[in-house]
Amino acid sequence: MSEDEELPDLVGGSTRSSNSTAVSGGGDQNYVSPSPDQVLENVIENVLYFLTSRHDRNAASLVCKSWYHAEALTRSELFIGNCYSVSPCRVTNRFKLIKAIAIKGKPRFSDFSLLPPDWGAHFAPWLRAMAVSYRALEKVYLKRMCVSDEDLAIAAHSFPILKELVLVCCEGFGTDGLAIVARECRHIRVLELVDSDITDDEVDWISCFPDDVTCLESLIFDCVESPINFEALERLVARSPSLKKLRLNSYISIRQLYCLMIRAPQLTHLGTGSFSTLEIVAQGEQEPDYISAFAACKSLICLSGFKDINPEYLSAIYPVCGNLTSLNLSYANISAEQLKPVICQCHKLQTFWALDSVSDEGLQAVSAACKDLRELRVFPVEALEDAEGPVSEVGLLAISEGCRKLQSILYFCQRMTNAAVVAMSKNCPDLVVFRLCIMGRHRPDHVTGEPMDEGFGAIVKNCKKLTRLAVSGLLTDRAFNYIGQYGKLLRTLSVAFAGNTDLGLKYLLEGCPKLLKLEIRDSPFGDSALFAGLHHYYNMRFMWLSSCKVTRHGCEEVARQLPGLVVEVIALNEEDKETNEYVDTMYLYRSLDRPRADAPRMMVRPPLIVGKALYKYKAGLPLAGLKISRSPCGSMYLSS
Amino acid sequence: MAMISKEHKKEKLEFEETELRLGLPGGGGIVNGDLVKNGKRGYTETVDLKLNLALKETGKGENLQKEKNLISCSNDSVKHTHKAQVVGWPPVRSFRKSLMAVQKSNSEEGGGGAASFVKVSMDGAPYLRKVDLNMYKSYQDLYGALGKMFSSFTMGKCDSQGMMDFMNERKLMDVLNGSDFVPTYEDKDGDWMLVGDVPWGMFVGSCNRLCIMKGTEAIGLAPRAMEKCKNRS
User: Fold this and answer.
1) DSSP code of B77?
2) According to a count of CB atoms within 10 Å of the terminal CB, is the N or C end of chain B lower?
């Protein structure tokens, strides 16, 4: 029997007697070449068990069939970047020992209401498959997936040793589901709900944790917009000696925060909740000593929350500032004057998130104090196109001059200059992520009146480690020429309201070999640009084009030429679908399997062409357009 | 078409099971032509953002966007410019936007002072919010903030002082007979009143919680409100 079909006995690494041995021609006559079986075992024991990176494992699995099988048997962590790129059963057929899984669903633009709510990305089909095959699952990480309460219940029952559940930007469940997790997942160590939309089912889920000592290490629920039974929370914290990360929601007042902090001085990550007084306080009642509570938290390195901050309380955090590596004030509408006394003490800060209310002056203070800063995010208080805008090129320039180790920046502003962006490209050569959002569409350099081409050009040219870029402002095709020319490591690119002609997109698709995720909206790129990427789409996770100049014919042509792609076409209006020249949204992604069956409901109409997975649907109304697909062996089939 | 279904999530699920449609069971879908409620973030928000006046004129029917990208944000009617806002731009997630709406008033006041938090619920909305009434100076301010929090919230008409004219019975009835949402509150006596019937300061002092009801449901409050007003004057 061939080596390919017989799988070696992996457990315990028992040795096998070899069927044949080869003796080397010369040299040490005691040396015996190992048999193929032994080679495989050596590979498994000495190589695969140590490979943790999925990229390394993917490479190893391509060496030969034996390695493929061995790798499949030994991989324990699975990453699915697009839940529709592969079917759950194909995954469970290949990998048998999975303990940790990460699945990503909707494209990022769904965060900004650009995708109908019933688009998909359901956890349920994955759950069904894993409930059968991965009963020993310990960690689940989901991002932009639809998860229901029923899903959480099934997960709790199917994965008896579930230890970590992390839901980022998810929706579809509520506090009912949380109650089930709290009650049923007896080994849960990490329960993190981040930026997720969780309905208030008016259930006291905190009380559902078992009464005995818990093994909780991380409890993050700052996005849960519903009241919490505080007494139950206090008791929970008191009986969770391993708790290191606690992020509270805005229903927790600062007084309540105090009570929790004195019970958990071992915390390393704290989300402070509202950070103001929510209760009615009797006249003359003594305020707790908040400063001492913070002083007692000697291990605190990451602070966030401040959801309804009363700035008078901000000085309470002084004792921990010197140790902080991460400070998130992005919900705190504070001024530069209020920020300065805090930030000037944060010498070790590496991550800082803030609102633009701190203004350029506040950023100058950051620049002066935080020499170790790696990541900066500045969010707008007013997310409008023509608001005042307290931060500008002045703040950006200051940051670039003071924070030379900067690796990642997200900066919302109303006005910017090329000069400041160029300066940052030179001052901060370690930049890996550069996301600049000039909120006014098509806004040029406000000093010179020129497009922002040169600024972004400098970024791609000088920041040689750059992998993620988001552009904005007035941009011509030239900007894309620069990106195509210099952005050789670029993996993620976000474009909005930019470019002149198809050349813009062509430059990108022809120039950026590592491009993995491309999202473009409201830019004049059409079919000929679309075709320019045919050589590359199989190497990408997805491409998103909305409100561009791509036609239905263009999409169909891509689908026809690349059967390994799924091309989804989304129409916003029933009428537009027939009359509009251009499609509203095109979302294409590679997929190993049949087009998905859970696309929003559609009316069946005869298709005009044969292509793979062409959908058209309107938010809230039935789809028109038929799905006709081609199976890998070439036969056509209708799928619903 | 109601943007946010009044039905409880579980009821909706049962409905889905009996409905004939294409797709795998358990997958998401459209229930009876209504958008599946998916919480705050998502396309529903897009469709909700429109001029309140326009909604009243075109009637309760469809929520189709005539201009697919350029739509007016409900913010416009309260503050700032009347420039049309584009869907999903600037790219700030909705939960950040709604939080900021409340906090902006905070910064204008200069912060500090005792807070006066009340719960705000809305018929059909999947979540409750809290507002600090001390952060606002007038009914207009409050409506602005509430409007941002609950995007499909439609305000009744207010005069420039933000007080409804209770003596004009017909005007009141118009509002209540429409499908608009009207703000109501529970006062210290435990009575449910229409917001706007007393001076702002008095309202802040007596408001326990807010509820944004459908106009048709608030009809029963009007006579009582008038009673109270007559007693006070």
Assistant:
1) G
2) C
A116 interaction partners in chain B (CB closer than 8 Å): 35, 43
Judge whether A144 and A170 are in contact, CB under 8 Å.
yes
Which residues of chain A lie closer than 8 angstroms to B36, CB-CB?
A: 117-118
Residue pair A154/A131 in contact (Cβ under 8 Å)? The answer is yes
C-alpha to C-alpha distance for A595 and A173, rounded to whole angstroms? 26
Q: For residue A303, which of A276, A278, A277, A275 has the smallest C-alpha distance?
A: A275
- Round to whole Å and give the CA distance between A303 and A314: 12
What is d(CA A258, CA A256) in angstroms, rounded to the nearest whole number?
5
Residue A53 Cα distances to A50, A60, A453, A554, B89, angstroms: 9, 11, 37, 37, 36
Half-sphere exposure of A464 (CA within 13 A, CB side): 0
Interface of A with B in 5-44 (CB under 8 A): none
pTM exceeds 0.80: no
For B23, left (φ over 0), alpha (ψ -120 to 50), or beta?
left
The whole-number pLDDT of residue A520 equals 98
Residue A275 in this model has a pLDDT that exceeds 90: yes
What is d(CA A300, CA A322) in angstroms, rounded to the nearest whole number? 10
Contacts of A594 (CB under 8 A, 6+ apart): A87, A629, A631, A639
* Helix, coil or strand: residue A26: coil
Beta-carbon separation of A384 and B96 below 8 A? no
CA distance A522 to chain B (A): 10
**Which one-letter amino acid corresponds to residue A12?**
G
Using DSSP bridges, classify how beta strands A627-630 and A623-624 pair: parallel, antiparallel or unpaired. Answer: unpaired
**Beta strands B207-214 and B181-187, pairing class:** antiparallel
Residue A543 pLDDT class (50, 70, 90 cuts): very high
CB contact under 8 A, B27 and A640: no
Spatial neighbors of A82 by CB under 8 A, at least 6 apart, are: A104, A105, A541, A542, A589
8 Å CB contact of B39 and A197? yes
Q: What is the pLDDT of residue A10?
A: 37
Tokens of A31: 């040396």
Measured distance CA(B210)–CA(B207) in Å, rounded: 7
Chain B contact set for A412 (CB, 8 A): 90, 92
| Element at A410 (helix H, strand E) | strand A408-413
The answer to whether A130 and A137 have CB atoms below 8 angstroms apart is yes
List the Cα angle A267/A271/A276 in 5-degree steps.
Answer: 120
CA atoms within 13 A on the CB side of A630: 14
SS3 at position A321: helix
In whole angstroms, what is the distance from residue A154 CA to residue A156 CA?
5
Alpha carbon distance B97, B104 (integer Å): 10
- Interval A562-597: pLDDT, tens: 999 999 988 765 555 555 688 889 999 999 986 777
**What is the mean predicted confidence (pLDDT) over A150-179?**
97
Residue type, A625: G
CB-closest option in B103, B107, B126 to A200: B126
What DSSP string describes B7-74? S-HHHHHHHHHHS--SS-TTS---BTTBPPP--SSSHHHHHH-S-HHHHHHH-SS----SSSSEE--G
Instruction: For chain B, say whether A117 makes contact (Cβ under 8 Å).
Output: yes
B26–A contact, CB cutoff 8 A: yes
Q: Is the dihedral of CA A200, A310, A385, A356 positive or negative?
A: negative
CB A212 within 8 A of CB A237: no
